[in-house]
Structures are given as C-alpha cells and as structure tokens.
Amino acid sequence: MRFDxxxxxQSGASLRDYSLSFETYGELNASRSNAVLICHALNASHHVAxxxxxxxxxxxxxxxxxxxxxxxxTNKFFVIGINNLGSCFGSTGPMHTNPDTNQIYGADFPVVTxxxxxxxQARLLDALGIQTLAAVMGGSLGGMQTLSxxxxxxxxxxHALVIASAPNLTAENIAFNEVxxxxxxxxxxxxxxxxxxxxxxxxxxLRIARMIGHITYLSDDVMNEKFGRQLVAASQGDAERNFFFxxxxxxxxxxxxxxxxxxxxxxxxxxxxxxxxxxxLDYFDPARAYGGNLSLALARAKAKFLLVSFTTDWRFSPKxxxxxxxxxxDNKRDVSYAEINAPHGHDAFLLDDARYxxxxxxxxxxxxxxx
Amino acid sequence: MRFDxxxxxQSGASLRDYSLSFETYGELNASRSNAVLICHALNASHHVAxxxxxxxxxxxxxxxxxxxxxxxxTNKFFVIGINNLGSCFGSTGPMHTNPDTNQIYGADFPVVTxxxxxxxQARLLDALGIQTLAAVMGGSLGGMQTLSxxxxxxxxxxHALVIASAPNLTAENIAFNEVxxxxxxxxxxxxxxxxxxxxxxxxxxLRIARMIGHITYLSDDVMNEKFGRQLVAASQGDAERNFFFxxxxxxxxxxxxxxxxxxxxxxxxxxxxxxxxxxxLDYFDPARAYGGNLSLALARAKAKFLLVSFTTDWRFSPKxxxxxxxxxxDNKRDVSYAEINAPHGHDAFLLDDARYxxxxxxxxxxxxxxx
Lengths: 371, 371
Fold this sequence. Notes:
The structure is a homodimer. Chain A is an alpha/beta fold. The first copy, chain A, has helices at about 115-130, 140-150, 170-185, 205-215, 220-225, 230-235, 255-270, 270-285, 295, 320-330, 355-365, and strands at about 1-5, 5-10, 15, 20, 20-25, 35-40, 65, 70-75, 80, 95-100, 105, 135-140, 160-165, 305-310, 335-340. The two termini of chain A are about 25 Å apart.
C-alpha cells in the first residue's frame, strides 16, 4: 500500500511517497475487533503464514503458529503480516528510489527506529479501517515493536504477545551487531552504501554478518548436539580420515554449515537493510527517556500481556523478559509469563515446541472477540 | 635458539632450521629441578614477566603472577617463557623465510598443533639440559599445551597447572574461530596468505577477528558494567545528546572500544599466525584417538594437577574444566580444582583476582624443590 503523506521519523528526517507490503489471513469481522498484527524480526517479512500457489517451499516464517486451527487461529482472527520500512522484501527500503533525488537511496535511506516502524504500521491500520487491534505479536525485534505499540498507541492494543524479547539490547548484543556492521561497511564492495551504482554487493561482509548471527541464535548445547566436533569428511563417509591440516578448508561440519548459511544469506539480503535493522535493535530503549526506569516507561501501557522466553536463549535471555514482567507488575498490569525449557536458544521462538505453541494457543483462546 | 634438526609435525610435514624465542626468570638450581615452563595462549609471547629496560609499558603478559615474591616466585623457581612456532613474536613463523624455497612462508607455513608445540618445547628443554619440569602452566590454549605435556612427556612433568582451559573446543568455539578466519581469508588484501609479497595486510579481517575475540573473552555482565548502553557522546560530556541516527558512526561506547581494539590488533598481529593459532585450538582433542573417552586419553598422565576455572567464562566454562578433573580422578590422579567466582569471563585468567592468585600461590608453595 502506498502512502503519500510524509512520515516524520525519530531522527528528524521524514519519508514520503513510501509503500508498505502486507499480507492478511482470515476475515475481518463486522465489528473490526478481531485483527492481530504480526511484527517481524531481522530476517523476515510480511509473509508470515501460508504457502504461495505453486511454490511448495514458500511457507510463511511463522506458519507453524498461524493459520486455520493453529495457535493463532485464522478462522477466528484476522491476521496482518507487515513488512517494515527499510526492509528488502517489499516495503520501501534502501534499494528503492528516493523521490527527492530520483537516485537509489542506498546509504541515504534514513535510519528508522522501532517507534518509526510502529507509526508506519498504525497508518496502515488507519488505511485498513482498523482502530483497535485484538493483539499485536512478535518475537525478538518483533517483540520490541509489540512492546512499543502498547506505549505509542495504548488505546489501540488490547493484548500484546512479546516473545523472546528484551526491553533493550545489552552491551554484548550491541557488540555482536557492531562487528556484523563493520564486516559489511569495511567490505570494499560496500562503497559507502552506494554499491548498487557500482554493480557490486558486499557479499563478504554479509556472509560474516550472517555467520555471527547464526552462532548467537543457537545455544551452545544445540550446536554441540547438531554438529559437535564432527568432521566434514565424516559426513562423506570417511569417519576415520585424519584432519586436512588446513586453515582454509572447512574441516568441521559447523564450519561448512556456517559458510553455507552465509553464502545463502549474501545472495538475497540487502546490506543496507542489515545495517538499518541492527541499528533499530540497538536504539530501542523505552526506559531511556525515564532515566532508565522501565517501570515508569511502561506506565502508559494499557494492554494485557503475554511474555514468553526460552531458557537457553542467551541473546534475549529470560532475565530480560522478566525485567519487562516486573515493570508491568509494578504498574499493576495484567501479565502472563511463560519461561519455556527449550534447548534451541534464541531460534526457539520460530520452532515447534509443544509447550510454547500451547501457551500461545491458550492465550489466543482466552481473547474474546465479539462479531 | 636455533634448531637444525627437522621437527616432524602431526600433519606429516616437517620444519627445519627453525628458531624458538624464549625468556627465563630466576636461576636454575644445581639439581635442575626447579624449572617451570609457561605456555602462551593466542595473543601472547615468551615475554611472560618483568619489564624491558627503558620500556616502561613492557610488562610481561603474566607479570601479575610471575616474579620475585609473586605467586610463581622466581626466587624459588626457574621460569621459562616460550614463544610457539607459527607465532609473529619471534619464533619461526609465516613471516620468516622458508629455507627450502628462500621465499617468505606466508600461507605455506605448515599447520602446527598443540602436540607439535609441545614437541618443540621439549627440544628446547633438552638444549637447556632440563630433563624434568617442576611444573608446566598455561591458561586457555596454554592450558591445552600444559595438559598435552602430561600426555606426551608424562615422565618430564611433575605438576601441571591448567587454567581456564578445556579438553577440546565446543562447536560454538570452533564457530567463532571460523568466522574470524573467514573475515581474514576473504579480505581482498589477504591474497591467499601471500600478502607480504603484495605489500598489503588484511587489516579489515584482522579487525573483525579481534572484535569477535574480544566479545567472547568478556562476560556479558562485565561488558554491561563497563560499557552498558553508554553513548560515545556521554564520554565527551554530552550525556543529553540524542542519538546520531547513523549506521556508520560509533554510537555506543562498546562500539568505539571494539573498533579501537580491532585497529590496535591489526597493526601488530600477523594474519597467518591468527589462522594457525585458531586452528591449533580447533584441532586439540586428546580424547579423539580414544573414541572420545577422555578418561582413557588421560590415563598416560603422571603429573599432579591444579585446574582453575572462572564462573563467568563462557568460552572455556567451568564445566569443561570439570570434565578434565573427572577424567583425572577416574585415573586416580592427584587433582586440585578451584572454581573462581569472578565476573570477568575468560579474560579473568590474566587479571588480578585475590582468590585466584592465592590458589596458584599456595599450589606453587606446596611444590618441593630440592636444591
């Protein structure tokens, strides 16, 4: 959907003549009271559920959670998947043309924040004629958007499902983002973010960024279980082979897995989008305007909350979710919290885990929707 | 010290006409029974203690631990710091000339393992006329060498001090090493490891490698305490400033700290050395030849052991030290183990911590040395 009116951004800049890509699932009811907005994390899009006709492997990124009869039941709810500004999957982003210059934005695409995204999402809802959301849901960075919805538009959100998220990033998380960004921006093919004009793609940097990301999305335990110290040769039926004794060859299976993931990512993800999205993560910090006091910051929220965290998630640890829970309870808000004992690390929020799915399912079942 | 005889390596290759740099502290006693060998980790050298004349900031990397009257008292012990093959701090490495080709080794320097290093160290001791070591001590990768000493030369080691180490790397640790290596080897200035001839240095890759390393050497907690979410501007007296809203500028102090560490490292560390040393870490796995059974692997050891780990060390966690302790106890070896409650992560083994220093001090006090 195209928007003509300029969107003012937190940075002071603004975006005009932009588009937002979105998908919907299920039917909006007569009272327009059954809409659920899904916010995406780093590497995702508006395609949250279902399969595109004729494309067998095109499941939405939260298809295990969302659909007819699923935890978020599209027979009951009208689900909206939205793609954020700055993305490379449809909505206006660095690969598009700046209407002010008729040049590709590239590095000139303005820095967007979680709050900016939520503002843009709210405009989409205005355009769809939806005043109040039955729920907003998101994991990781999507959870930050969900939390921010309850603060920016407290009267438009009845329920907020904040999954595997945090009230802000720790220094360690910022550090990992920064290394990934430096890998991209110091790649000679980056050309200060204007690589499109040079016909290059900073693939080296994107590969490194993705490899770092992958390590932090998994738990140490699941990596040991999945790869351990297995050699590449062992998977080729040569378990007894000695080492290659090479610093260049992939010797261990974890190495070839990471290289594969890096290569794949570099083929489709935009480098400027990566920079923008990691920066949005870094900046999010609703308590900042309240001297770091999260309880004061969350006083505006009126929604009911479900928080979910995963025990082995070291990037967005349960401790961080509990900080949100505590701040909401300090404000006497209605909060449910589930800490799921799952081995998969941060990635768990995207995976099938019976207890996790059932917690979300029960929560959505409890949401009343009047036709 | 120069060695003419070729050193056979685990890979099947060999090194001839090589040198080993070392420093000694204290005096070797008449019975030659008070020698302690110090093995270094990734980013260190033979200069373990003391200050070079006229160079105020040249403290050895373990100077807080080693010296007259210190935990490892050089009034009692004769301490030997050695630099490993493949290093860039003095011993023969990739920056030196290959006697077979009269070209700089570069990427042709053979892959060396922990076992190869220990063999080379043993030859140095032979040359110094030292048959038996009172102790071997090392942290991290140095701890792996220490452990390997007790297996390769069980009759030449009376005591082994294995600090912040592990019986092998986990998949996650290999993964971090691999990302760092890929950052270096995909830097266009790497030239397949023969960058010396091209007059280039793969500094971009070295910077990224060092930034990743730094993150994993620190604990999440100490990073939060030291840097938190503090802005660069706050350190410049402008605490109230808004964000830069930039993906290229260092916005948070943790970012500028990591950039500084990366820049510094890229100025002095050799890229091929980095590859070799991280590979030695990856390969070390004494249990591999015993079907993964560490207890069987350690049956050869005869030394007495002190193991030390640090609670917040997530790169070489206490759990990994306990695996070594258990395997030694399975063999009824004499083992002391201290798990130090320290906030600093893996770096703790290099820092002043009263309990840690006192454990090491007590252990060395208990070692009998007959003049």
